[in-house]
Design goal:
308 residues; alpha/beta; 6-stranded parallel beta sheet; 3-stranded parallel beta sheet; 11 helices; binds zinc ion
């Protein structure tokens, strides 16, 4: 446990970690993050806490061995306090009220050769239709992180996702950062966060008669303790992070995405892809599914991975 804590604290101190989840084309990724994608698979921006507020922790890249050995959920006591406040990353677990917070999940059980495929939909239609065709042809179900705006713009595709047995995750209405970390804007209030979640859920209910609860995927992967408390209060018990980022959003080629995803395969891994045309994730998907099957993996939704 102490090794995990040290590694995550180091990650939290590394405020420059890239935010992988780029669903909205209108909000560009930080240039520094694009220029230097970390070598590890997992690059969610875990914290908005400035590095200066945790001076005792060395700034290092997340160790890949650590990444591959983590268990099903990260320790919520290791998250920073509300952004802008004094960092509280080392607060003893006993002082926390765990039930008030959603569970942050970046992988499932490592006991079986099972992985989850998740796709974020927040920009254009992109390859969504092709992705659905591939999943249908290969007999694979997946999770889709859905913004309310995307749902409203693409009701036919949302309807298909539900009809074909896929699983939905609330990716907010507008894909704005809840903490402001990746967008340079102010953190959203609890009320604004609740509206983002509710508007999306209402759109999904109205269009497809489905729910996104209890799964929340934070835009850009931006989270802090206030976010996981706020989403829990709205009925989102699981903050859906990921193990393996395809890097498609970062301009990786189809072949590069495929190689990266197959190299990073591990029992319990959660993959994050994007449906938008800015990423070659859709074209890479058939090769990824075939390659994972050759390695003996079953694929499915995040919900299936966590509750087989
Ligand atoms: Zn996104």
């Amino acid at each position: 446990m102490s090794g995990r804590r040290v590694a995550l604290l180091a990650a939290l101190a590394g405020g420059a970690l890239a935010a992988a989840c780029q669903g909205a084309a209108s909000v560009p990724e930080p240039e520094a993050a694009r220029a230097t994608p970390p070598p590890t698979a997992y690059i969610g921006a875990l914290a908005a806490t400035p590095a200066a507020s945790v001076p005792s922790v060395a700034l290092v890249a997340v160790d890949v061995t650590y990444e591959m050995s983590r268990t099903a959920s990260m320790d919520l006591a290791e998250l920073p306090a509300r952004s802008g406040g004094v960092a509280a990353v080392a607060t003893p677990r006993a002082a926390r009220v765990a039930s008030a917070r959603a569970r942050m999940v970046d992988r499932g059980p490592a006991t079986e050769r099972r992985v989850a495929l998740t796709f974020d939909a927040g920009a254009d239609r992109g390859y969504a239709e092709q992705i659905l065709d591939t999943l249908r042809d290969k007999g694979v179900r997946a999770s889709f992180g859905m913004t309310g705006q995307w749902a409203e713009a693409n009701p036919d595709l949302l309807g298909r996702m539900v009809a074909e047995g896929h699983h939905l995750i609330n990716h907010t209405q507008t894909h704005d950062s809840f903490t402001g970390f990746s967008t340079g804007r102010a953190a959203k209030s609890s009320e604004a966060r609740a509206r983002e979640l509710a508007t999306t859920e209402q759109a999904v209910q109205r269009i497809a008669g489905a729910t996104t609860k209890p799964y929340f995927r934070p835009p850009y992967g931006d989270i802090d303790t206030s976010v996981i408390e706020d989403v829990r209060a709205q009925g989102y018990d699981i903050v859906a992070m990921w193990t393996v980022d395809s890097q498609g959003w970062n301009g990786l080629s189809r072949a590069g995405i495929e190689a990266r995803c197959l190299r990073a395969a591990a029992p319990g891994a959660v993959y994050v892809f994007h449906v938008g045309s800015a990423a070659q994730d859709g074209p890479a998907l058939p090769g990824i599914i075939e390659g994972l099957r050759k390695q003996g993996y079953q694929m499915g939704t995040l919900d299936w991975l966590l509750h087989p």
